[in-house]
Amino acid sequence: MLYNISFWFILFLLYSILGYIAEIISCSLKSKKVVFNRGFLIGPYLPIYGFGCLIMVLFLSRYQDDLVALFIMSAFYCSLLEYLTSLLMEKIFKLRWWDYSKEKFNLNGRICLFNSILFGLGGIVVVKVVHPFLSWIVYLPSSTITICIAVILFTIFMVDVIESCYITSRLKINLNKYVGVDATATVKEEVLKAIRKHTLLTSRLLKAFPTATYHANKKFREFLELFDTTKREVKIQKLKAKQRQKKEKESMR
Fold it and tell me: What pLDDT sits at residue 195?
């Protein structure tokens, strides 16, 4: 029982990592520059791809000899998963994490036809090619080693989830307090606090979703710009402080 859970969890993470790589390649091609920050979590994995691939493998393998059915079912289930994930995360964090409103044939900006087609093609590749290879690799170690690896990875993964949720919750609270009011100075101070406590993690999270918008606060983009501006100002202030210290030391000689 424990081995089976460990086996599927490792596969889940592997698919999540592959999804992260696919997102990086896709977004880098679209933006014509290398993009590393993708996803809600801090680590290099996207759980939605992990869940999507497991759904394909566990429930759609029976269609592996019927490519048309496999394509249609993969496109349907993965699009449904993406829609529900978008809806759930918006309900929890009051934040739209991705928006396909500018894409043709989209549904409430949560899913679009182009992605659904990619999901369908991905389902064929995963079921027919990727899963047999990955499952063979995960089967290679002994059951004890597999369980130990799974426990370590699960611990890291859960710490990541908790930390990411904490950062996002902080940003949500900070913004919602100032809905409908002009409190730039106060918000800037809050940004400074966030930078001091979670400089790298918060910055990575914000960059991962450049098109994110708060449903309750249309000024979220201004907040992101303010965050980046404040980071630059902090760096400049530190640089000036070092230069002053250097001049003071030189004058004392």
Answer: 47
Asked whether the predicted pLDDT for residue 112 surpasses 90, the reply is yes
In the predicted model, what is the mean pLDDT of residues 206-224? 56
Q: Is the Cα torsion angle 131, 137, 141, 147 positive or negative in sign?
A: negative
The pLDDT assigned to 51 comes to: 94
Phi and psi angles of residue 47, each rounded to the nearest 5 degrees, phi first: -55, -30
Q: How far apart (Å, rounded) are the C-alpha atoms in residues 230 and 129?
A: 47
Would you state the structure tokens that stand for residue 144, as one six-digit string? 């004890």
Paired strand residues for 112 = 106
Query: Both 146 and 178 in a single domain?
Result: no
**pLDDT higher than 60, residue 185:** no
Q: Which domain holds residue 129?
A: 2-155
Exposed / middle / buried, residue 111 (Cβ in 10 Å: 0-12, 13-18, 19+): buried
Say how far apart CA 46 and CA 84 lie, in whole Å: 15
pTM, two decimal places: 0.70
CA dist 13 → 53, 58, 241, 242 (Å): 10, 16, 44, 44
Kindly state the DSSP code that residue 188 receives in the 8-state scheme. H
CA dihedral of 76, 63, 54, 7, whole degrees rounded to 10: 180
Which residues make beta-bridge pairs with 213?
Answer: 96
Residue 69 tokens read as 């059915």
CA 153 to CA 165: how far, in whole Å?
18
Query: 32 pLDDT exceeds 60?
Result: yes
Distances (CA, A) of 182 to 179, 195, 220, 233: 8, 21, 13, 21
- One domain, residues 102 and 139: yes
H/E stretch holding 95 reads strand 95-96
Q: How many domains does the chain have?
A: 2
Let me know whether 179 and 246 are in one domain: yes
